[in-house]
Amino acid sequence: MTLAKIDIGCEFGRGWTLFKENMGLFVMAALLAMVLTLISCGILSGSMTAGLFLVIERLINKDPVKPQAGDIFKGLDFFVQSLLLFIILMALGFLLGIIPVVGQIAGFLLGSIMMWGMMFVAYEKLSAMDALKKIYELTKTGDFTMPLVLGVIANLVAGLGVIACGIGILFTMPFAYCVMACCYQTLFVDAAARPVQMSVDAEKPPPPPPDIRL
Fold first, then answer.
1. Would the CA dihedral through 108, 22, 167, 73 be positive or negative?
2. N or C terminus of the chain with fewer C-beta within 10 Å?
3. Model confidence pTM above 0.90
4. What does the alpha-carbon distance between residue 113 and residue 151 come to, in Å, rounded to a whole number?
5. Environment class of residue 210 by beta-carbon count within 10 Å: exposed (0-12), middle (13-18) or buried (19+)?
6. What is the DSSP string of 40-54?
7. Residue 213 and residue 4: Cα distance in Å, rounded?
8. What is the rounded distance in angstroms from the CA atom of residue 150 to the CA atom of residue 164?
9. Within 13 Å of residue 212, how many CA atoms lie on the same side as its CB?
10. 176: burial class by Cβ within 10 Å (0-12, 13-18, 19+)?
């Protein structure tokens, strides 16, 4: 499939607007996710990430029932696949981390792949392996370069929160996820709707010729 072009600045702008309008909700959800991740020794990390992406999706779609912080538990519906994706990428990151320089660069890329993979698992109900396969197939076409770059930048932004005694991550992490979810919307939801509209317009009968009388 051919993906639409994305504007990184535009996606960050959309993500910021979404985060700013729901900041309280995102901070509480991020705090809950972090506590549960720590208590579970990381086992619930994938589920909580999927749950946060599901909350963001509902906000983007303007769900009439506004989500609450506790709705991140919906991510538990994807517990097995999100955990498997987390384990695969963490293991790959550990192996690549042994290689000087290359390991550090690969770490940023894997962070981007993690976020895209989690969205494919949560939004499209793909298995961990199918999500990774989809990323691979999209990357082969060359159309997924900018989305991966966006993920790298978003991952860096999320990590900046650690500077402020770790508390800042409650803001930077959900903001980064908002950016990624907005980009997903651009590539896989909005773009899919446009051809449908075009085909509907194409099916409309042409207007009748003008009635010209001499």
1. negative
2. C
3. no
4. 7
5. exposed
6. TTTTTHHHHHHHHHH
7. 48
8. 23
9. 2
10. buried
Q: Rounded to whole angstroms, how far apart are CA atoms 36 and 213?
A: 78
Furthest CA-CA distance within the chain: 87
Determine what percent of the chain falls in helix, strand and coil, rounding each to the nearest 5: 80, 0, 20
Measured over the CA atoms of residue 43, residue 148, residue 7 and residue 164, the dihedral's sign is positive
Walking along the chain (214 residues) 10 residues at a time, the average pLDDT comes out as 87 97 97 95 96 98 95 97 96 86 82 97 98 96 94 93 77 97 95 55 54 49
Q: Which of 142, 122, 35 is nearest to 114 (CA)?
A: 122
Distance CA 26, CA 18 (A): 10
195 touches 204 (CB < 8 A):
no
